[in-house]
Amino acid sequence: MGRSRGGLMASIHAVVDAEGRSIRLALTAGQAHDGPIATGLLGGFGTGAILLADRAYDRNADLNAYFAPVAAALAEKQDGILAEFAAAQGGAVDLGEYYNTDPVKTAGAMRPSATLYAITD
Predict the structure, then answer these.
(1) Residue 25, strand partner residues
(2) Long-range contacts of range 87-96, CB-CB < 8 Å, 24 or more positions apart?
(3) Could you report the per-residue pLDDT of 30-71, keeping only the tens digit for each?
(4) CB burial of residue 25 (10 Å; 0-12, 13-18, 19+)
(5) Are 59 and 35 in contact (CB under 8 A)?
(6) CA separation (Å) from 88 to 16, 101, 110?
(7) How far is CA 6 from CA 53, 88, 108, 109, 118, in A?
(8) What is the C-alpha end-to-end distance of the chain, expressed in Å?
């Protein structure tokens, strides 16, 4: 427990999978900054892992280093990615059946930029 303006508090930091199941948990004092705990929580994730984080974690130098190659690749390929998204706009899309869509056709329609997903997958 840590003391902050609101009294005694603690913060729970969690890493979860795509289904919301906990992979890692950490508990810090309420007055502690969120950034320093991120390094320990994110250790072991390989290149290309998709991570979403609260803004409080973005000041951490280790996170900046972790995402620097992705940011550089996205900046380098930005024009191509935007062109792929623009080319996918406006046309009819066949997803198979209305209620039971074909997963392959749906993935193709929902992920129109092969360049983007080659960088982020």
Answers:
(1) 14
(2) 87/112, 88/112, 88/113
(3) 666 666 677 777 777 776 677 766 665 555 666 777 788 888
(4) exposed
(5) yes
(6) 32, 19, 10
(7) 24, 50, 49, 47, 45
(8) 38
